[in-house]
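hey
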């Protein structure tokens, strides 16, 4: 199944943010839940192998958009195997985008591809988080591949791909984490290198990226949060 989500945030009168476009079709619905916040709501179980979700986010200069989801997504294999499921987010950010969805759980036998491509203007601010768990309780891990590309004014700031799960070249026991968390922040605040227990923070131009990995997602999130500067985004609503 093909899913399409479109959200446009624009600066309105008095410094408010207006959302002239909020629409979706397919396995996701989108609901405005606050002055600058939308939530993605699953309308069907999945995603299943072969499903493809395309999410377009446009945040114009002076606007703020927060994107959340109401529950974890469970990626399931298609009947008889086949293609992976995919979620592709394309963001154009002139204002501030805070993108933090609930975790993706990749069930045994499933494969899921997640992509984020963000084009930032000169004043654009981005915070984007990815949380992944391979396998549900008591089952074998699935396979997840995540790619993040961030460009500001045509200049690449970050381009990374992480592959987790059976068959991925870097996922070999005993270094075979089932849980993964990453947050990238691009704005005006830089942060230096910092390491923790199975977590690391690396500097980026105007920002930073934190990554954590391990056996249990809640422990990975705690380890990554300990390296995350506070607050991650400074904007006016």
């Amino acid at each position: 199944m093909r899913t399409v989500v479109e959200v446009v945030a624009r600066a309105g009168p008095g410094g408010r943010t207006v959302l002239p476009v909020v629409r979706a079709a397919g396995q996701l619905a989108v609901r405005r839940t606050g002055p600058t916040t939308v939530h993605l709501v699953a309308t069907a179980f999945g995603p299943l192998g072969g499903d493809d979700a395309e999410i377009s986010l446009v945040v114009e200069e002076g606007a703020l958009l927060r994107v959340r989801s109401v529950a974890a997504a469970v990626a399931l294999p298609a009947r008889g195997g086949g293609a992976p499921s995919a979620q592709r987010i394309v963001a154009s950010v002139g204002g501030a985008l805070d993108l933090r969805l609930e975790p993706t759980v990749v069930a045994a036998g499933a494969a899921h591809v997640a992509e984020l491509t963000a084009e930032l203007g000169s004043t654009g601010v981005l915070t984007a988080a990815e949380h992944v768990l391979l396998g549900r309780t008591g089952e074998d891990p699935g396979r997840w591949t995540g790619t993040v590309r961030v460009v500001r004014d045509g200049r690449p700031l970050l381009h990374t791909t992480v592959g987790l799960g059976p068959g991925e070249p870097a996922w070999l026991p005993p270094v075979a984490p089932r849980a993964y968390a990453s947050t990238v922040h691009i704005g005006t605040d830089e942060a230096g290198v910092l390491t923790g227990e199975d977590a690391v923070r690396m500097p980026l131009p105007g920002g930073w990226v934190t990554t954590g990995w391990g056996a249990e997602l809640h422990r990975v999130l705690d380890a990554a949060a300990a390296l995350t500067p506070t607050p991650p985004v400074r904007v006016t609503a």
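The CA atoms of residues 143 and 167 lie 8 Å apart. The helical segments are 217-225.
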